[in-house]
Amino acid sequence: MIYLDSAATSLLKPQCVGEAMAAAMGRCASPGRGSHESARLAAEVCWDCRCAAAELFHVASEEQVVFTMNATHAINLAIHSLVGPGDRVVISGWEHNAVVRPLHARGAVIDVAAAPLFDREGTLEAFARRLSGARAAVCTHVSNVFGFILPIYDIARLCKAAGVPLIVDAAQSAGVLPLDFQRLDCAFAAMPGHKGLMGPQGTGLLLCHGETKPLLFGGSGSLSRERDMPAFLPDRLEAGTQNVPGIAGLLEGIRYVQSTGVEQIERCERSQLRLFAAELGDSVGQLMLSPDPSLQSGVLSLLPRDIDCEEAAELLGQGGVAVRAGLHCAPLAHESAGTLRSGTVRFSFSPRLRRDDVLLGAKYTKEILGK
Ligand code: PMP
């Protein structure tokens, strides 16, 4: 199988990730819940992972790195911390349901800063027009459908000037593009551990800067006499026993990203996308490519010719090419791009793919959909 679905989860993990998980299953107990060797080892793994994440994302202190079970959990925590019923929240036109649904559930007024696909200036203008008086802003760094890289540092600057706290959804950029939390100077950045960071499913991170509100209450291994959750991070947001095997795997994933180099990963995914697109040309339908390659990461949508998207993905899957089709949990992004009715077929790339895999993926796609 040629796995071109890394935007969903990175299946092609470095071997050390699984090995670290298996080792943690045998050796690590509950971190912060005991002074014996195995509890200490577990605490060490968690601390090392916080340190590695803080280093990779330039977070001032390790305590600001909170473990979550995925990006959705991290985004819910951030939204719960900042947004109440009736609050107006500005979001980009490329947000995932992991942003839209929690805002809707919270009773927020969702104000979409709509702009055309791959239009950075238009996006900035749309945010600038809406920020005054907003309670918060949420913006994805990279669209999970089209790979559009949003001008997140400029949006953060606009938010800062307007006094509006910003939540960055880094689900598609963590481990794929450089992300400097200090330079962003935003309230939160949420990310999965299981995509670009190469960790296992069931892991995620929330980088925090400012006021936080817990969503879950329970044991934290600290201040046990108090009925309230501790006021300090990460304990405030980490109730219950941690996913230590998952965190052990995530630590190895982050180390892989660090040793490969995030700039190298970015270049690699971008060149795979361009190679794949050049091989396909317009043979099977319309590729949604940015005219400026620097505005698109390793995610590419196709509007196939003469065939429904789901059916196309089904045929590709049977032919050994793993892709995702439909709305990709992001109806708003499809609405923004005018593809809500059809959906798209999404191809996504990975530093774990070889050039030959990319070429073979393009060849099979042409053969299967070009008939
Ligand atoms: N935001 C974006 C942009 C995503 O692509 C995804 C994953 N598809 C999420 C949020 C949710 O991530 P998770 O599945 O880890 O909760």
Could you describe the 3D structure shown?
The chain is of the alpha/beta class and 371 residues long. Helix content is 40%, strand content 15%. The mean pLDDT is 97. The strands form three sheets. Strands 2-8-7-6-5-3-4 form a seven-stranded mixed β-sheet, sandwiched between helices. A four-stranded antiparallel β-sheet has the order 9-10-13-12, covered by helices on one side. The chain contains twelve helices and 13 strands. β3, α4 and β4 form a beta-alpha-beta unit. α9 runs parallel beside α12. It has helices spanning 15-27, 37-56, 71-82, 97-105, 120-130, 152-162, 181-184, 244-260, 262-280, 309-318, 331-337, 355-369, and strands spanning 2-3, 65-68, 88-92, 109-113, 136-140, 166-169, 188-192, 204-208, 285-288, 299-304, 321-322, 324-326, 344-348. The radius of gyration is 21 Å and the shape is globular. The structure holds 4'-deoxy-4'-aminopyridoxal-5'-phosphate (PMP). 4'-deoxy-4'-aminopyridoxal-5'-phosphate (PMP) is lined by residues 70-72, 96, 98, 140, 144, 169, 171-172, 192, 204, 329.
